[in-house]
Design a protein that fits this description.
- The longest helix has about 35 residues.
- The protein is about 60% helix and about 0% strand.
- It starts with a helix and ends in a 12-residue tail after the last helix.
- About 5% of the residues have low confidence.
- It is an all-alpha fold.
């Protein structure tokens, strides 16, 4: 049992470091390009993962209490879904107001035209000017 642990523990550490390296954005890898870190982790079975975890990645606390799922390159907030983005929701509200205003204008114009048409048909409204005789 102890022999299996001697092989499984470094293997688990290597797999963890490898996946962590692949999921790290390129600009957060320190000292070397990310591809070099992948080779170091895979070629130097025990030392590579330890070096990656100790010195290969920028480790910092989340700014403003953000969760790690919100971190990304240049430390700008990346929204997971559009309904989580307040700017997107505000833009939707503004667009809805504009559309409602346009719709009200169209409805008012349609009502005006219908009333005008009814007046023409009943003969109570202003008559169409007759074209000049030539």
């Amino acid at each position: 049992m102890l022999r299996a642990l001697i092989y499984l523990l470094p293997l688990a550490l290597t797999i963890y470091a490898f996946i962590d390296c692949l999921n790290t954005p390129e600009d957060e890898a320190k000292h070397l390009p990310k591809i070099a870190w992948v080779f170091i982790i895979l070629l130097f079975w025990i030392v590579g993962p330890i070096v990656w975890l100790a010195a290969g990645k920028m480790r910092h606390a989340p700014a403003g209490g953000r969760t790690p799922s919100e971190w990304h390159r240049n430390h700008r907030t990346q929204w997971v879904a559009p309904d989580d983005n307040p700017e997107f929701l505000k833009a939707l509200k503004d667009e809805n107001k504009k559309d409602e205003s346009l719709l009200k204008d169209w409805e008012a114009d349609l009502r005006r035209r219908e009333e005008e048409l009814k007046r023409r048909e009943s003969g109570t409204g202003p008559e169409e000017p007759t074209p000049p005789a030539s």
